[in-house]
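Budget justification aside, the reviewers requested a transparent look at the raw inputs and outputs of the sequence design task funded under Objective 1. We therefore reproduce one unedited record. The lines immediately below are the structure tokens for a 335-residue chain.
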């Protein structure tokens, strides 16, 4: 029988997992991973920044905030044809989901209409769709759902008690409200956070506790390792111990056994060995393609070689877990 899904974790419960000996934690996480997933299958998404920089928010980690001097060139919302051309390239390279990100605090209704058109076009290519556009009202979420948006990404970013030292222009409750609107519209949620921002282990536990205690576990849980960008307030933060990062992945897997745990930002700076440990700890999805939104991601041939060396297959189509998928290695093949 599969480990049941819980939503009542205490901070102590979560910290007790973090405190396990590394081998024990890895064994437990890898075991829970196998209950609902084939550990040799990894879901592959490609990101595109459809509107870049010039963001009014003050997120301390983000190169796209207009308040930080990072030298990033702002770009207005892309044309639909250019977006669809990039989606076709992503599909040809083997991605099965296309995620469109915009540096907005919250979109205007006319922006939502334009993104809805993009979503229709990307779906018509046979790709799953995801968008991350900032805070959404209930009606905006409904519009995107009607256009066929599968996932909405909106992160809690960190523990409630650390949040105010990173972001001042949007509250934790604002984020929870957007997530509730996305859920009410019937979309799947992609919701996680960032580690390596100078938070304590207890605060990492607090992020995962909050995610797991949401009314439903997010279907996709991105765990980002801070990409330090010169000019952002968090540049120069002491790097996180790589084993602590792996522990964070393992605890996310244990708390949310049916969710896709996404090894997200920060892979470019990780060794192949560290990524392999993350897959062993239960990570089963990645961003694929040479760019995240504005920063570098591993070259695609490096990822293809890594998958081949580890015997990992790119998942062709995702289904909510409960099913173990038959391996499909067709699209992202060894270089
Ligand atoms: N502007 C929208 C918003 O913030 O709601 C959507 C795009 S925003 C860039 C998406 C997520 O990217 C953030 O919530 C954050 O978790 C992540 N992110 C941004 N900059 C990052 C960095 N330097 N390192 C790691 N993750 C980062
Ligand atoms: C998420 O959690 N990570 C992705 C995606 N959701 C949109 C974004 C990472 C951004 C890293 C910094 C950049 O490239 O600008
Ligand atoms: Fe703007 Fe999103 Fe970056 Fe925050 S994370 S500054 S809201 S683009």
């Amino acid at each position: 029988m599969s480990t049941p899904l819980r939503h009542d974790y205490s901070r102590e419960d979560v910290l007790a997992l973090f405190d396990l000996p590394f081998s024990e934690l890895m064994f437990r996480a890898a075991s829970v991973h196998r209950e609902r997933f084939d550990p040799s299958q990894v879901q592959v998404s490609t990101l595109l920044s459809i509107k870049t920089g010039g963001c009014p928010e003050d997120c301390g980690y983000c190169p796209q905030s207009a308040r930080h001097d990072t030298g990033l060139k702002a770009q207005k919302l892309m044309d639909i044809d250019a977006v669809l051309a990039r989606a076709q390239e992503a599909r040809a390279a083997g991605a099965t989901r296309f995620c469109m990100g915009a540096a907005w605090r919250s979109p205007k209704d006319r922006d939502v209409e334009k993104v809805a058109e993009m979503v229709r076009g990307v779906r018509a290519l046979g790709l799953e769709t995801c968008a991350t556009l900032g805070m959404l009202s209930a009606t905006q979420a409904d519009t995107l759902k009607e256009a066929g948006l599968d996932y909405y990404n909106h992160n809690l970013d960190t523990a409630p008690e650390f949040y105010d030292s990173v972001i001042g222009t949007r509250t934790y409750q604002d984020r929870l409200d957007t997530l509730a609107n996305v859920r009410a519209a019937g979309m799947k949620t992609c919701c996680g956070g960032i580690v390596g921002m100078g938070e304590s282990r207890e605060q990492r536990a607090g992020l995962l506790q909050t995610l797991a205690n949401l009314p439903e576990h997010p279907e996709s849980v991105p765990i980002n390792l801070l990409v330090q960008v010169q000019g952002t307030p968090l540049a120069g933060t002491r790097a996180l111990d790589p084993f602590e990062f792996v522990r964070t992945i393992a605890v996310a897997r244990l708390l949310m056994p049916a969710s896709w745990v996404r090894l997200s930002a920060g892979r470019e700076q990780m060794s192949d060995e560290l990524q392999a440990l993350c897959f062993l700890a239960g990570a089963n999805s990645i961003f694929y393609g040479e760019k995240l939104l504005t920063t570098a991601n591993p070259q695609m041939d490096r990822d293809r070689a890594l998958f081949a060396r580890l015997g990992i297959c790119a998942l062709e189509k995702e289904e909510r877990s409960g099913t173990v998928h038959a391996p499909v290695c067709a699209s992202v093949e060894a270089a």
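Confidence is low (pLDDT under 50) at residues 319-328, 330-335. The first helix runs from residue 11 to 18. Computational costs for records of this kind are itemized in the attached budget.
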